[in-house]
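Design job #97: recover the sequence.
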């Protein structure tokens, strides 16, 4: 079983991964594929630079390339439950859906909530001001991006489920558990 996660920064994908890990899922992120390529090229692992490397990989090898690479890594393991985070282009969803048991979950929250979460968590790679966060979210959603670039808006239209994550971690946990249980035979 593969559960692919898409959604803006701050939407709660990392929290969903923690819940899935408790359920025995292994975790891989498409940004790992980008980071590996950036290291090969000697590109600094800064969010904007990584976005450019990811876009270049999609342009050179097709927009689903990051999902293809992730699936190749998964094939080398015997584990049967995987959470894949960082889906940014609909072609990545198409690649994941070629398998029999892939489910794509989108996480969403009001833009003001996203901005507040990102500023509050203050990761080193996160934007530092309201305007910088807003610009990053807009870029993730496809503003100014080529078709093979980041296209979160289009991804959200291709999910199997949309999870509204504007409440507490306990509420998110309950939603994820209900969704997961609905997938069990």
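Job complete. Output follows.
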């Amino acid at each position: 079983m593969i559960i692919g996660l898409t959604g803006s920064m701050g939407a709660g994908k990392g929290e969903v991964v923690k819940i899935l890990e408790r359920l025995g899922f292994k975790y891989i992120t498409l940004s790992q594929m980008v980071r590996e390529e950036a290291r090969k090229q000697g590109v600094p692992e800064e969010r904007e630079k990584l976005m450019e490397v990811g876009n270049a990989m999609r342009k050179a090898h097709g927009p689903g390339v990051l999902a293809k690479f992730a699936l190749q890594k998964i094939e080398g393991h015997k584990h049967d439950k995987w959470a894949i985070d960082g889906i940014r282009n609909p072609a990545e969803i198409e690649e994941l859906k070629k398998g029999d048991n892939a489910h794509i979950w989108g996480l969403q929250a009001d833009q003001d909530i996203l901005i507040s979460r990102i500023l509050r968590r203050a990761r080193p790679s996160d934007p530092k001001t309201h305007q910088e966060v807003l610009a990053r979210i807009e870029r993730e959603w496809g503003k100014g991006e080529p078709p093979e670039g980041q296209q979160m808006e289009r991804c959200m239209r291709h999910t199997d489920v949309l999870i509204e994550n504007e409440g507490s971690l306990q509420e998110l946990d309950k939603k994820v558990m209900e969704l997961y249980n609905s997938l069990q035979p």
